[in-house]
């Protein structure tokens, strides 16, 4: 997961192949085409299926574990305290449950051991829900997904993408990723070109070596909207979320059998979404939607 990190961890653990994580965000001038569309906020909760409120009196504190450096999801703020989308969501959850909430930042590879040794109660670190991880943890309902997206140069944006529309086109992807595997399986009449990493892939698009690139929507959203892209490119088509390739989503991990906490998290997540706080957080951290 993090480089195996999880916006793309949903991909990495689903197929057991490597992918690269998102980059830091930066502002870019507003342009026509993609940015003109309304911001899309993902929703994973059905208002007709309200979770039952568990006995919250049995929960007195939630010790969240998160990663040290995965902006904008988790990072150290200017005051030295944990910050980011995951951190703010954890605090919103604790507000709903009305319990004390602590957030401890650790290296991603130490999170599972910290949870199993009771140094924390829940992992909120963009951890993918996969069969491999379900064998080790129980998870809350998903609170976001890492969709796959196509990006093209701004003078060649496509509103819709289907395999037949890309016949003969050159499409780039990072070698060995679920994105490359998906292209090879579904876009059989396109010319698939593999690159060693995200930087090489994106440079290929800027230099017009390929017509489109295909990769993790979250990291691509930051690149498209950041200074490194030099305002060259934009999303084409919509998101791809097939779980066989791109995972079931990202959830909050708890120790196996901790049903009370898992149910409390599900109840609180629904409440945070229902009150509009989830939307507020999403729009604060994602200036251009990956969806």
Automatic annotation (TrEMBL):
<protein>
    <submittedName>
        <fullName>Putative ABC transporter periplasmic amino acid-binding protein</fullName>
    </submittedName>
</protein>
<keyword id="KW-0732">Signal</keyword>
<feature type="domain" description="Solute-binding protein family 3/N-terminal">
    <location>
        <begin position="61"/>
        <end position="289"/>
    </location>
</feature>
<dbReference type="Pfam" id="PF00497">
    <property type="entry name" value="SBP_bac_3"/>
</dbReference>
<feature type="signal peptide">
    <location>
        <begin position="1"/>
        <end position="20"/>
    </location>
</feature>
<dbReference type="InterPro" id="IPR001638">
    <property type="entry name" value="Solute-binding_3/MltF_N"/>
</dbReference>
């Amino acid at each position: 997961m993090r480089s195996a990190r999880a916006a793309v961890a949903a991909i990495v653990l689903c197929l057991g192949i490597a992918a690269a994580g998102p980059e830091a965000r930066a502002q870019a001038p507003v342009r026509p085409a993609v940015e003109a569309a309304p911001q899309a906020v993902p929703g994973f909760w059905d208002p007709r299926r309200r979770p039952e409120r568990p006995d919250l009196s049995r929960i007195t504190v939630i010790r969240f574990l998160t990663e040290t450096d995965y902006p904008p999801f988790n990072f150290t703020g200017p005051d030295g305290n944990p910050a980011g989308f995951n951190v703010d969501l954890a605090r919103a959850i604790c507000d709903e449950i009305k319990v004390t909430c602590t957030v401890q930042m650790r290296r991603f590879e130490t999170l599972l051991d910290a949870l199993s040794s009771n140094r924390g109660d829940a992992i909120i670190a963009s951890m993918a829900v996969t069969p491999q991880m379900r064998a080790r943890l129980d998870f809350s309902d998903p609170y976001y997904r890492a969709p796959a997206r196509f990006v093209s140069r701004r003078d060649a944006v496509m509103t819709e993408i289907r395999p037949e529309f890309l016949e003969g086109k050159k499409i780039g992807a990072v070698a060995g990723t679920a994105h490359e595997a998906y292209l090879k399986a579904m876009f059989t009449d396109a010319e698939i070109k593999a690159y060693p990493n995200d930087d090489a892939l994106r440079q290929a698009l800027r230099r017009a070596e390929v017509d489109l690139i295909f990769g993790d929507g979250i990291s691509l959203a930051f690149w498209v909207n950041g200074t490194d892209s030099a305002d060259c490119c934009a999303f084409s088509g919509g998101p791809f979320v097939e779980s066989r390739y791109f995972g079931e989503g990202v959830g909050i991990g708890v120790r196996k059998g901790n049903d009370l906490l898992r149910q409390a998290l599900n109840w609180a997540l629904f409440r945070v979404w229902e009150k509009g706080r989830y939307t507020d957080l999403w729009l604060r951290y994602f200036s251009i939607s990956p969806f």
